[in-house]
Amino acid sequence: MIVAFSVTPLGVGEDVGEYVADAVRVVRESGLPNRTDAMFTSVEGEWDEVMDVVRRAVAAVEARAPRVSLVLKADIRPGVSDGLTSKVETVERHLAR
């Protein structure tokens, strides 16, 4: 499964990059395949391990912020691995035509 999620601290002002970095650090230290862009962090793995990473990423932000917003989108597709790369490669192949 691939989960794309965004964790946003609320009540800490406009500059939230330091808080978001705490969440991304949890994801990167998990060892699961992941990718971060300007809006979301995507992580790939089995249900329990991915949801545990999301939970810990939220907790990292929650430890320093009075309120946290979580947006999550999941692609649950058993038997598929390396989706973070293969999905993008498929689109790029179609664009190259």
Structure summary:
The chain has a four-stranded antiparallel β-sheet with strand order 2-3-1-4, with helices on one face. α1 runs antiparallel to α2. The chain has three helices and four strands.
Report on this structure.
- This is MTH1187 family thiamine-binding protein.
- InterPro entries: MTH1187/YkoF-like (IPR029756), Thiamine_BP (IPR002767), UPF0045_domain (IPR051614).
- Residues 3-92 form the Thiamine-binding protein domain.
- Belongs to the UPF0045 family.
- The structure is a single chain.
- With 97 residues, the chain is an alpha+beta fold.
- Helix content is 43%, strand content 26%.
- It has three helices and four strands.
- The chain has a four-stranded antiparallel sheet with strand order 2-3-1-4, with helices on one face.
- A hairpin with a 4-residue loop joins strand 2 and strand 3 (41-44).
- The chain starts with a strand and ends with a helix.
